[in-house]
Amino acid sequence: MRILLVEDEKILADTVRRGLVNEGFVVDVTHDGVSGLSAATEHAYDVILLDLMLPLKNGYDVLRELRQRRIWTPVLMLTAKDGEYDQTDAFDLGADDYLTKPFSFLVLVARIRALMRRGAPERPVVLTLGTLTLDPVNHRVRRGETPISLTAREYGLLQYLMRRHDQIVSKADILDNVWDSAFEGGDNVVEVYIGYLRRKIDVPFGVQTLATVRGVGYLLSADRVAKPVAAPQPRA
Fold it and tell me: Crossing angle for the helix pair 171-178 and 188-201, nearest 10 degrees?
């Protein structure tokens, strides 16, 4: 049972290492993101304990590069940051668990053992709906083989809709999940960004996947051919 601990706080790293060794684990320790990525790439581990705030390369970038290289070792993020966006970002990049400092050592060991039981099956992280794909690791969106350039807000909106495809979501749902809680504008901003998104993911491709359900919300579903606009009839 071999573990890689990537932690720049050397006192904490040594304390955790000694505790895990006493529990029967073999532990390798690195103190920066570059060394951690190198170790995780070159050696096989059962679990990687990865701090978020690291020198040289942060934990997000280490995790992103591991998954890009199709290294699926279970990763438990260790961080002093406890914001929900930090957690969702980590999970979107392919993290398996998340523990906020200060943490109970007993809880840490229990989480490690749970990850070991679960193993490291190869799992795709790309979201797919019809010909539309969204890759959270690389922040890339494509319709078929055609890349689509989105702003950060458009990307967040599309990711939320793809995770809830074939479900009607309201403006309030979208504001709560895509916009910052401190946002004080009206909900009309959602309609504006739905329009931006539709003009990028649907209109150029002749499909109609992002629909407005009048009075209720919005629905993203698999590819449908856009209805042609009827030609005006000549007057009698």
Answer: 80
Q: How far is CA 57 from the centre of its chain?
A: 18
Pull the structure tokens for residue 191.
Answer: 């309609």
8: Cβ contacts below 8 Å, ≥ 6 apart = 31, 32, 51, 53, 54, 55
- What is residue 137's DSSP assignment? T
Tell me the pLDDT of the chain (236 aa) as tens digits: 789 999 999 999 999 999 999 888 889 999 999 999 999 998 888 899 999 889 999 988 898 888 878 788 899 988 876 554 455 666 666 788 888 888 899 999 999 988 887 765 555 567 889 999 998 766 789 999 999 999 878 988 998 898 888 999 999 888 877 776 556 677 789 999 999 999 999 999 999 999 999 889 999 998 766 554 444 455 54
Q: Provide the whole-model pTM.
A: 0.56
Q: Domain 2-118 belongs to what topology?
A: Rossmann fold (3.40.50)
**CATH T-level topology, domain 127-220:** Arc Repressor Mutant, subunit A (1.10.10)
| Distance in angstroms (rounded) separating the CA atoms of residues 28 and 26 | 7
What are the start and end residues of each CATH 1.10.10.10 domain in the chain? 127-220
Taking the C-alpha atoms of residue 135 and residue 61, their distance in angstroms, rounded to an integer, is 15
Q: Are 57 and 27 in contact (CB under 8 A)?
A: no
Sign of the CA dihedral with 165 first, then 223, 210, and 91 last: positive
β-pair partners for 147: 142
The CATH 3.40.50.2300 portion of the chain extends over 2-118
